[in-house]
Amino acid sequence: xxxxxxxxxxxxxxxxxxxxxxxxxxxxxxxxxxxxxxxxxxxxxxxxxxxxxxxxxxxxxxxxxxxxxxxxxxxxxxxxxxxxxxxxxxxxxxxxxxxxxxxxxxxxxxxxxxxxxxxxxxxxxxxxxxxxxxxxxxxxxxxxxxxxxxxxxxxxxxxxxxxxxxxxxxxxxxxxxxxxxxxxxxxxxxxxxxxxxxxxxxxxxxxxxxxxxxxxxxxxxxxxxxxxxxxxxxxxxxxxxxxxxxxxxxxxxxxx
Length: 256
Hints:
The protein is an alpha+beta fold. 40% of the residues lie in helices and 26% in strands. The strands form 3 sheets. A 7-stranded antiparallel beta sheet has the order 5-6-7-11-10-9-8, with helices on both faces. It has a two-stranded antiparallel ribbon with strand order 1-2. It is flat. 21% of the residues are buried.
């Protein structure tokens, strides 16, 4: 049922004009839809400008650092320290330059986890970073970097641009059935409208929790579970990308 914006009279759904004040109901609906579209377009432009500004600032800062590094290398060579030492200094700082650019969408970033939960920072053929957590292989998107509160034997990563968080751990579990583990996850996290998949020793589940989307994937084997949790704002412009990340990590847990 519609209500006339001008006089407030209740109107049937198929009404085109208000029979009290003769105001066009269709024009009111089109105007509201147009306003909503303009708001979404403006928010998208603002987000793009913020990303572009961040990229410019990072490039400026890193370019200055590169100039200082080059100057330091030249001084060391002139002082006779040796080309080997100078080369090591240059390339170690060049790595930090690449990390700064990687924080921007579309540019590959080198994630850093704890020493126990990382073995190789080079992307695989699919573009994901493969690592080990307590001896178990895991892969995560290259746009995620180590966040605050990292613990030994686990990955705690964040995607600062899209406000997503990714944690992964290999720990003991009392669950032996993937289906029961999925049900327990839904109840524990209070997920709304959850959807999931279960195989012989793996499971995955997705649901909403407040204004966030929660996804968990896990593999259970011999009283231990390798699992990861991905949480991101449901309204994020990167939501579809995070769904792709989750789908790949689920397949990786299955060994596909």
